[in-house]
Amino acid sequence: MIKGIGSALASVLLAGSALAADLPVKAPAPVSAPTWTGLYAGVSVGARWADYDWRTSDVSPNFGLGVFVPTAGTSGAMDSAAARIGGYLGVNWQFAPSWIAGIEGDFGWADNKKSASPLPGTTGLFFGGPLVGLPAGSVKDSWDGSVRARLGYLVTPSTMIYGSGGVAWQRLELNASCAVVPGNSFCFGNPHNETFASTRVGWTAGGGIEHMIGGHWLLRADYRYADFGTWTQPFFVAGGVGVGFDDRFTAHVTTRTHTATVGLAYKF
Fold it and tell me: Across-strand partners of 203?
């Protein structure tokens, strides 16, 4: 009897195995790749390096060419570096499995300032004698912004390398001052302290790497170069011209910046 029961159990197990072998096997659901398409907004921290080149020309133009002879060159670097904080807003479009296109705007602030005493190009001989009381001054950048197109490539479904380029803006301030001192003074008409400000427009280009975390958070490292051209600004025009004196000079300031940041954004 026991032998019969064992035979019956064996038959049932064999039948169950055969039935299980005939059942269709259900494959696990595929894991979908994250999509980069959509709007995002973020904040960034980093640094901005400003390359200023200050060149002075037309010192005391009333007296004609050759009266002022520079003895230490006409130009000099006035570079600076500062911490930068900012924010950005953009939109991505994933138009192929591995390609991303988009547009982004950003705004940032940094206290880039460089002073010089004397200003480059103001040291020299005037009517054959060395000038004294030379002007001091500074160059200062505060806020910057840009609107850029971006093109990225996915090295993995969650990691993108990208390049960017577009239009940039920079707030720039120039200052110069000098006092009247005994002798062959640079400012031999009136003392001066003048500041001029301008929002400069230029171009920018750069690139970076961005990684998607959890489908909504975008962590990035970004670098940009920007060129704002040359600003030509006359100084000491008001009250600096008259019979027997001419305090004027012209500054030509070329500005370029390098900006490196890390950022964290949320994709909506």
Answer: 167, 227
